[in-house]
């Protein structure tokens, strides 16, 4: 049995977009797995981050590495029907969300004072109260430092959220009236879009990225469609 180690399901889904992306892929690929929510367990993985899986005693960390492992070992593929052009587009969209949009999302949750005051309790809920505030300070400093060295926090807030708005606009424009990103059936890129933008839209936090997303009715309908599809694919524990 594969175990998926992640942060939490405090909102009914994991507030970490990489964890939600990974779980969504495993559900759509009909992979049997058990979920274990434990933020502190990240230190068991060589990369010291979540998500990771344990598969027959092997620890595999990082969402892309996990998906590649499952494809190679079990031949679980969602993309066999995509042509080369679609595969290239899927890769570009995934990289945009994971390497650009992610930092806007991180800034909006960890570096915006009003949002951070609420989000820290959500993100670190699994940590006992006597240690939660100390952990929050450590994680806050880590994200602040990461955003600075990545470069996103060197822009003004207006510029940061404009970057996020353009990313969201790009996804909405490319999606158009399709049921899923490439038509009437989902591909792995849909699990990335849902993992990141679903995490923005369904989170009970009022953020600038959420306001930007709310301007695109086709994207909202798509995210609700994806949520229904993902949640109807049970893991082995259900």
Short description:
Helix content is 58%, strand content 8%. It has 238 residues and is α+β, with helices and mostly antiparallel strands.
List the helices and strands and how they pair.
Layout: E1 2-6, H1 17-28, E2 33-37, E3 52-55, E4 58-61, H2 63-74, H3 84-111, H4 113-123, H5 129-150, H6 157-175, H7 188-201, H8 208-213, H9 217-231
Parallel strand pairs: 1-2
Antiparallel strand pairs: 1-3, 3-4
Helix pairs in contact: 1-2, 1-7, 3-4, 3-5, 3-6, 3-7, 7-9
3D shape: globular
Helix residue percentage: 55-70%
The major beta sheet can be summarized as: 4 strands, mixed
What is the number of strand segments?
4
User: Which sequence of SSEs, written as H and E, runs from N to C?
Assistant: EHEEEHHHHHHHH
Question: Largest beta sheet: what is the strand line-up?
Answer: 2-1-3-4
CATH architectural designation of the largest domain: Up-down Bundle
What does this 3D model show about the protein?
Helices cover 58% and strands 8% of the residues. It has 238 residues and is an alpha+beta fold. The chain has 2 domains: 2-74, 3-Layer(aba) Sandwich (Glutaredoxin); 84-231, Up-down Bundle (Glutathione S-transferase Yfyf (Class Pi), Chain A, domain 2), CATH 1.20.1050. It has a 4-stranded mixed sheet with strand order 2-1-3-4, with helices on one face. Strand 3 (52-55) and strand 4 (58-61) form a beta hairpin. It is globular. The chain starts with a strand and ends in a 7-residue tail after the last helix. The model has no long low-confidence stretch (mean pLDDT 91).
């Amino acid at each position: 049995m594969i175990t998926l180690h992640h942060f939490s399901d405090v909102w009914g889904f994991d507030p970490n977009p990489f964890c939600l992306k990974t779980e969504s892929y495993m559900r759509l690929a009909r992979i049997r797995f058990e979920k274990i929510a434990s933020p502190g367990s990240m230190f068991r993985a060589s990369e010291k981050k979540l998500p990771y899986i344990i598969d027959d005693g092997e620890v595999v960390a990082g969402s892309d590495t996990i998906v590649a492992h499952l494809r190679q070992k079990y031949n679980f593929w969602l993309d066999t029907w995509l042509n080369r052009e679609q595969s290239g587009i899927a890769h570009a969209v995934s990289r945009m969300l994971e390497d650009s949009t992610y930092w806007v999302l991180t800034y909006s949750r960890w570096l915006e004072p009003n949002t951070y005051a609420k989000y820290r309790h959500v993100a670190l809920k699994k940590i006992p109260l006597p240690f939660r505030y100390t952990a929050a300070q450590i994680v806050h400093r880590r994200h602040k430092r990461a955003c600075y060295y990545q470069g996103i926090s060197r822009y003004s807030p207006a510029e940061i959220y404009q970057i996020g708005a353009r990313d969201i606009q790009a996804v909405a424009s490319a999606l158009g009236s399709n049921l899923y990103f490439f038509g009437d059936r989902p591909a792995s890129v849909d699990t990335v879009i849902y993992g990141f933008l679903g995490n923005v839209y369904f989170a009970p936090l009022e953020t600038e990225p959420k306001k930007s997303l709310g301007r695109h009715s086709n994207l909202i309908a798509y995210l609700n469609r994806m949520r229904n599809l993902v949640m109807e694919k049970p893991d082995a524990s259900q």
